[in-house]
C-alpha cells in the first residue's frame, strides 16, 4: 500500500513538472505540498510495513553470526584452541592485545617515568603479583601466566572470551593461571559461537572483583553495576542510558581510554568524534566545561575550574548494596584455631577475620575523602625507601591548590597494616599462593612467605634486594579515585555539604571556602565596633528619654 | 511657626527605600553565606545575594546619573561650618531639648554631621563593598591572572566582610538618628515617607 502511495506521489510530481514553468502559481505550490504530504505518508506506511517482518535493529548488530562459523563448531578442549580459531579471521586481534595494558599489566608513566602496572605496583590488599601469578592471572586476558617466565609473545595465549563472552557462562578458574574452569571448557563451543561486544558484566567479571571479592577494591565498581538502578549510576542504568564500560572507556585497537595511573583531569571537553583524538572517558568529553544552567552568577560552572565533576556527582560510594573493604591488617594474619587450622570470623555477613588475610573492615554507602589531584599518581614501589614511623602512602596524588591543573577529587582511601623489611626499610612482597609450604596460604609462615616473595620479586626484577630476615608492620594507605556510581543530578551534593564548617571539605587546605572559612580577627573587631555603636545609641536614647521625662515632670 | 516644605522628591524616596530594602536583603543573605546565621540555605542565599547585588548596582547607576545631572551631589560636600555646634548638640543639647543648630532646606537637606556620615558611606563603605564584591563574583576571571599573584581571594572576602560590618555600624547610627531624633521624634522618618517636613522658619527664609 505504501508503494502505491509513493508511485502516486511520483506520478503527480511528474505531471507537475511537465506543466509550463510560467504557471508557477499558488495552486501549483499547493499541489506540491499535497504531493509531498502523500509521499511522506506513503513512506511512513512503507516503513511500518517493513518493520513488521524485520526484527528491530539492535545497537551493535553484527553482520557476522558466529554460530554459523565452521571454525567455531568445536569441540574445544582448552582456551587457547578457541583463540586459535578466533585468530583465523581476526588476524590482528592477538597482536593488538599484546600491545595493551590488559595483557602486559605494565604502564610506563609518561610524566614520572615510573614503571607501573599491576605487575609492578604493590597495594595494601593482597600485595603483589610476583610469586602469586597463578592466582592473580585469573584476571589476566591470557592463559597460563603461572610464573615470571610467561611467554608474552604467544598469540594463542590471548583470552578472547574473557571480554567477548556474552553468555555469562565463561568462567576463569580462580587459581588456574587464567585458564577456564572445567565446566566452562566443556561448554567452549557454545560460548565461542556467542561472542560479542564487551558488557558491564564481562568487564565486571574482573574489575568488580578486584582485591579478592565483589566490591572489595574500588568502592565505585562492584556487581551492583551490572543492572544498576538509575539512582546508583545514571549512565549505566538500563532504564537510563544503559552505557557499557566501553561507551566511555572507548577501545581503539583493543586499547582503552582511561588510566588509573594518569587520570584525565584536564580534558578540554571535546566529544569523541571519529578521526579526532578522544578525550574520553573524562566527563567533559560529553558534558563540556560549562554543563550547568548559568543562573545569576554562573556559580556552579565556576566550580568546574577547581572541582572535579565526580566530587559533587558521586555523593557516596559503595551504595549499590555491596560493601567495600576499608581496612586490611596483615599483622593479624596467620592465627590458627585449636586444631591448627585456618579459620574465618563473620559479622553481619562480612568476613572480619580470615587466617589467610588478617583483620578486615568494611563499609557501605561511604562519604569519599577529598584531595587536590592533577591526574598524576606516583607509587611507592617495592624497592623504594619508606619511613616506618609514618603512615606510608602506597600511592601519592600529585597536585595542590597552586597547581592550575589540579582539582578537588573524591577518593576511597584504603588503609591497612602490612609487612616491611626492617633492615632495608622497604615494603615486601608476600608469597601467598602456591603449592609449597613457603606460600603463606598453605604454610601460614610469615617469614617463609616474605623470603619466597622477595626471592621471586628479585628474580623478576621487581626488587633490588632479597629479604633481610627481619620484618615488622607499617601502616599504609592507598588512594582510589572515584569515577563511577554517578548519581542523577538531583542527588548531587548540596552547596552546604561543603560550604559549612565541618563539611566535606573540612581539612582541605589551600582554598578559601565561603561558609566554611571565617575571618576571626575581622569578626572580633567588627563585633566590638558594632556592640559599642549599639551601646552608644542605646545609652544616648535612654538619656534623651529620661531627660525628656524629667522635663515633662517639671512643667 | 513652621512651614511645610517638600524635602524629598519622588525619586529620592524611591531611591532611598529601594536601596534600604536591597541593603537589608544583602546583609541578611550575606551573613547567611558567611555562616553567621542559618535561616536560609547557602545556595539560595548566594543566588539571592547576587540578584540583589545586581539590582543595587542598577539602582546606583540611576542614582549616580541623577546626582550628577541634577547637581544634587553637592548635598554631600563636606563642610566644617556648623560642624562643631552639631557635635555639641548631639553630645549635650539634645538631652535638654535645645533646638537643633541647623535648619533643613531643600538645597541643604543634610546637616554638616550628616554630610560627613553619608559621604563616608558613599566614598568608603559602598565602594569597598562593590569592589570586593565584584572581585568575589568574578574570582574565576582573575585568580589565575597577574592580579591573582598578589591578591588572595580570602583577603578580598575579609575586606567584603569588614565593609559589611562597617555598613552595619553606619546603619545603626543612621536608623537611630533618622528615625528618632526629629521633633517630634519620628518627624524625619515621616518626611522620608511623605516627602514633606515641617520646618521651623525662625530664620525667616526657607530655601
From TrEMBL, chain B:
<keyword id="KW-1003">Cell membrane</keyword>
<protein>
    <submittedName>
        <fullName>Cytochrome B</fullName>
    </submittedName>
</protein>
<dbReference type="GO" id="GO:0005506">
    <property type="term" value="F:iron ion binding"/>
</dbReference>
<dbReference type="Pfam" id="PF01292">
    <property type="entry name" value="Ni_hydr_CYTB"/>
</dbReference>
<dbReference type="InterPro" id="IPR011577">
    <property type="entry name" value="Cyt_b561_bac/Ni-Hgenase"/>
</dbReference>
<keyword id="KW-1133">Transmembrane helix</keyword>
<dbReference type="GO" id="GO:0022904">
    <property type="term" value="P:respiratory electron transport chain"/>
</dbReference>
<keyword id="KW-0472">Membrane</keyword>
<dbReference type="InterPro" id="IPR051542">
    <property type="entry name" value="Hydrogenase_cytochrome"/>
</dbReference>
<keyword id="KW-0249">Electron transport</keyword>
<feature type="transmembrane region" description="Helical">
    <location>
        <begin position="48"/>
        <end position="69"/>
    </location>
</feature>
<feature type="transmembrane region" description="Helical">
    <location>
        <begin position="116"/>
        <end position="138"/>
    </location>
</feature>
<feature type="transmembrane region" description="Helical">
    <location>
        <begin position="158"/>
        <end position="179"/>
    </location>
</feature>
<comment type="similarity">
    <text>Belongs to the HupC/HyaC/HydC family.</text>
</comment>
<feature type="transmembrane region" description="Helical">
    <location>
        <begin position="14"/>
        <end position="36"/>
    </location>
</feature>
<keyword id="KW-0812">Transmembrane</keyword>
<keyword id="KW-0813">Transport</keyword>
<dbReference type="InterPro" id="IPR016174">
    <property type="entry name" value="Di-haem_cyt_TM"/>
</dbReference>
<feature type="domain" description="Cytochrome b561 bacterial/Ni-hydrogenase">
    <location>
        <begin position="8"/>
        <end position="195"/>
    </location>
</feature>
<dbReference type="GO" id="GO:0005886">
    <property type="term" value="C:plasma membrane"/>
</dbReference>
<keyword id="KW-0479">Metal-binding</keyword>
<keyword id="KW-0349">Heme</keyword>
<dbReference type="GO" id="GO:0009055">
    <property type="term" value="F:electron transfer activity"/>
</dbReference>
<dbReference type="InterPro" id="IPR000516">
    <property type="entry name" value="Ni-dep_Hydgase_cyt-B"/>
</dbReference>
<dbReference type="GO" id="GO:0020037">
    <property type="term" value="F:heme binding"/>
</dbReference>
<keyword id="KW-0408">Iron</keyword>
